């Protein structure tokens, strides 16, 4: 499989983004290749396109499966496994966010909850707990808000995002009206 310069640029960029999302560059490249390819690909095709070992592809596929980002397909009279993205771009974004929440936010919330249960031993710990409480409340609010967003349809999410700063303006107007009374 030969990649054009545009496709290769996208795939390489996905590798860089993958490292920011929480998986390695090669796994990001593999996912980028799968996203923009209209047919399912075998491990051998992925290996050849990215010039990586078959073993590296196998490990990458396992990583993508743990993130629930790829699906395996079988074709009649063919023993090979074919891989493609599991769902739409919206579903992919939700899964990445969900996995990052599980891996990063949830453990932080657990640590903060545990630390907030203890009585502070001195003023320094009291101040630290106050800051941890603020962080806990922020993360809880963000997690709750994100959970609500995940339950929305892609169409509603798209509409909400297009509203953007308009929502903030409506809240400002509401606050001004309430303050006049």
Automatic annotation (TrEMBL):
Domain HTH marR-type, residue spans: 35-80
Domain of life of the source: Bacteria
Which family is this sequence assigned to? Answer: Belongs to the GbsR family.
Xref: InterPro entries: ArsR-like_HTH (IPR011991), HTH-GbsR_regulator (IPR052362), HTH_MarR-typ (IPR000835), MJ1563 (IPR026282), WH-like_DNA-bd_sf (IPR036388), WH_DNA-bd_sf (IPR036390)
- List the SUPFAM superfamilies hit by this protein, alphabetically: Winged helix' DNA-binding domain (SSF46785)
- Does the record carry Transcription regulation as a key word? yes
Name the Pfam families on file.
MarR_2
What is a single molecular function from GO for this protein?
DNA-binding transcription factor activity
Q: Under what name is this protein listed?
A: HTH-type transcriptional regulator
Q: Which UniProt keywords apply?
A: DNA-binding, Transcription, Transcription regulation
């Amino acid at each position: 499989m030969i990649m054009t310069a545009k496709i290769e640029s996208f795939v390489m960029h996905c590798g860089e983004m993958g490292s920011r999302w929480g998986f390695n560059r090669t796994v990001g490249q593999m996912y980028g290749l799968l996203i923009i390819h209209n047919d399912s690909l075998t491990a051998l095709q992925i290996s050849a396109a990215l010039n990586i070992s078959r073993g590296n592809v196998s490990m990458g596929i396992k990583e993508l499966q743990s993130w629930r980002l790829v699906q395996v397909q079988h074709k009649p009279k063919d023993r090979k496994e074919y891989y493609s993205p599991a769902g739409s771009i919206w579903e992919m974004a939700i899964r990445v966010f969900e996995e990052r929440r599980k891996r990063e936010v949830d453990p932080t919330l657990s640590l903060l909850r545990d630390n907030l249960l203890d009585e502070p031993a001195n003023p320094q710990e009291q101040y630290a707990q106050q800051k941890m409480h603020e962080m806990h409340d922020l993360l809880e609010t963000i997690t709750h808000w994100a959970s609500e967003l995940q339950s929305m349809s892609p169409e509603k999410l798209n509409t909400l995002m297009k509203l953007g700063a308009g929502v903030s303006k409506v809240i400002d107007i509401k606050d001004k009206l309430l303050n006049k009374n």
